[in-house]
Specification:
The complex is a heterodimer.
Chain A: E1 4-7, E2 10-13, E3 19-25, E4 31-38, E5 42-49, E6 56-57, E7 64-68, E8 74-78, E9 87-94, E10 107-108, E11 112-116
Parallel strand pairs in A: 2-11
Antiparallel strand pairs in A: 1-3, 3-8, 4-5, 4-9, 5-6, 7-8, 9-10, 9-11
Chain B: E1 4-6, E2 9-13, E3 18-23, E4 28-36, E5 43-49, E6 54-56, E7 61-65, E8 70-75, E9 84-92, E10 99-100, E11 104-109
Parallel strand pairs in B: 2-11
Antiparallel strand pairs in B: 1-3, 3-8, 4-5, 4-9, 5-6, 7-8, 9-10, 9-11
Classes of the chains: A mainly beta, B mainly beta.
């Protein structure tokens, strides 16, 4: 049982390049999330998928796209990377989402450290 | 809107107690607490739900004041392993997302 896995662990991009961050979970969770973490800013939600087949924008979606490939996998794509996207990216999952104000524990992956030059 | 955490940072000697606060400008449905050690992923500590239900860590306690839209995390008899950054996350009325605060850095020294 690996939990939430993310690839790659580290990445350096040049401005304008594209890349896809991969995330997979083996806990049979319905909901998956992408966050970015910047110093002093906490964790900010980029996109989330409440269930397979659905995706919604979070607080900071500009410059990103997502795909919920199946129940296990949720990818984040940067089409044209910018220095402002330098950050640590965390994927997380939970059994269900937060609709109705309840919700379960989120389990986080180890993170991807991205540097855009 | 992000919840506000206080203090931003605190240094303790081993065995001392600490309180970390989390305030929201909107009505809260639930408050979630996480701890993150340097270079690692956040780890779940506790959920407090509207109505008083709690789920979480045996050695950590927290309160949830629905009227004041606040939550406090109580760390007693601190240990070196308590060091890290503590985040509260909130789900506000009608919302379906978890919004995190900017964190409280806690350092426990000998």
């Amino acid at each position: 049982n690996a939990g939430v896995t993310q690839t790659p662990k580290f990445q350096v991009l040049k401005t304008g390049q594209s890349m896809t961050l991969q995330c997979a979970q083996d806990m049979n969770h319905n909901s998956m999330y992408w966050y970015r973490q910047d110093p002093g800013m906490g964790l900010r939600l980029i996109y989330y998928s409440a269930s397979e087949g659905t995706t919604d924008k979070g607080e900071v979606p500009n410059g990103y796209n997502v795909s919920r490939l199946n129940k296990r996998e949720f990818s984040l794509r940067l089409e044209s990377a910018a220095p402002s996207q330098t950050s640590v990216y965390f994927c997380a999952s939970s059994i269900k989402g937060f609709s109705g104000g309840r919700g379960e524990t989120q389990y986080f992956g180890p993170g991807t450290r991205l540097l855009v030059l | 809107q992000q919840p506000v955490q206080s203090p931003q940072a605190v240094i303790l000697r081993e065995g001392e107690d600490a309180v970390i606060n989390c305030s929201s400008s909107k009505a809260l449905y639930s408050v979630h607490w996480y701890r993150q050690k340097h270079g690692e992923a956040p780890v779940f500590l506790m959920i407090l739900l509207k109505g008083g239900e709690q789920k979480g860590h045996e050695k950590i306690s927290a309160s949830f004041n629905e009227k004041k839209q606040q939550s406090s995390l109580y760390l007693t008899a601190s240990q070196l392993s308590y060091s890290g950054t503590y985040f509260c996350g909130t789900v506000t009325g009608g919302g379906n997302k978890l919004t995190f605060g900017t964190g409280t850095q806690l350092k426990v020294e000998l």
